[in-house]
Amino acid sequence: MPLPVPTPNPINCQIASADFIFERFGLNGERGAPLHLGLLVEASVQANLTKATLPNLITEAGGDYDSTVTEKKPVLRGTITEIVRANLALGLFGREIDFDQSTSSPVDEVLIGVVKKGGFYFTSLMDISALTLTQAATPLVLGTDYELYNAKAGCIHILATSPTVVEGGSALLADYTGAAIVDRAAVSPFQENQILGQLNLIGRSRKGPKWNHRYFKTSLNVADAMALLSAEHNRFGIELEIQSDELGTYGGSATWPFGRVIASDAA
Q1: What is the pLDDT of residues 97-126, one digit of tens each?
Q2: Is residue 35 within 8 Å of 72, Cβ to Cβ?
Q3: CA distances from residue 244 to 86, 217, 251 in whole angstroms, order as listed
Q4: Of 160, 163, 177, which is closest to residue 109 (Cα–Cα)?
Q5: pTM of the full predicted structure?
């Protein structure tokens, strides 16, 4: 066992991040697949103790006569910078679902919404092509009356300068082809009331000692509002309540009920 470097010594100072590996448990607590979800660039931990105190009513000095910890809720907070689907599902308290779409060619599909020049309308299918539009049996002209604003999203823009479109008139009807989509990454947001999982942090230090963390059972909270769009690198804060696993359901024990923090061989 290497001897600790005595303090003060700058070799003990640390600049670090960690691999963020999270095993999301199933709806009934069943084990899942541990996935690498990027680097945790900031992290902090807090014990969060609740105490029952008995005031000192015996002497004039006051203070507490006794105090006892009645509840312990350790919390780890960190910042994630990589917005992969699994992280998006965590931040949105959602489920990862693959999106599929069969090839289809709808005829006279009604575009939902009151007709207005300058409006944006969506087809029921995505990845569309061969689009034609009509209103009350009157053909609309691509480039004059409308544009296919985003084919992937199935988004159509009615031009503000259209000489043909009648505002507030009959519905817009679309003929088009929607391409086949197989296993496209998707998230169904806000389906979960609770997300449980096991957290592993593998220390990466530009300077100083490395520590590897494992917390056997954690409950996720999103610590900050999740930035979906940003002019800078996106990041969002997570908060994980570390729960006891003394019974060993997820690898804990009486010796290691909450987790373990072990120096790396390279420390």
Answers
A1: 999 999 999 999 999 999 999 999 999 999
A2: no
A3: 25, 7, 11
A4: 177
A5: 0.81
